[in-house]
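Q: Okay, next protein. This is Ferritin from Thermoanaerobacter pseudethanolicus. I've checked the sequence twice, so it should be correct. Can you predict the 3D structure?
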Amino acid sequence: MLSNRMLEGLNKQLNYEIYSAYLYVAMENYFQEKNLEGFANFFKVQTQEELAHARIFYEYIYRMGGKVTLYPIEKPEENFESILELFKKALSHEKTVTERIHKLVDIAIEEKDHATNAFLQWFVNEQVEEEESFQRLVDKLELIGDNIQPIFILDAELAQRIFVLPAPLAQGQ
């Protein structure tokens, strides 16, 4: 059974994952407007991942006898000055998600909630991958600078990204 504090934290994170999806829809839209379909695809897949993360939290809360609470979702930023600035904001957002997950782990450890701690470890590892992915793209974009040809090459690369159902959902957990 989840403590009230843990249940509230998990519900807030579920809602933040939905906000993350909303933010990435705004970023996808930025690239659609610029006809950069590969970049748009990258954020379309990212949106799907964030919604899957929300679903994982949803399922876990109910499996543990809790009740899901939905909060209003804040309107995300929609205007970005450049591709690089957008990716830096996405990286910063992922670092915030990491901090939030770590705080939940801290609560689980403090409360000796071993089940929730084990559950959250998947997200700890996922956030390492998320930050690494965004950091690599920021690094590439900094190298590219204002050179348009490499942007088109990167756009073609990002067009290949596909959504893969996260392991906890694929395994029915």
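A: Here is a summary of the prediction. The chain has a mean pLDDT of 96. The helical segments are 4-33, 37-63, 83-110, 114-144, 148-158, 167-170.
Q: Noted. On to the next one.
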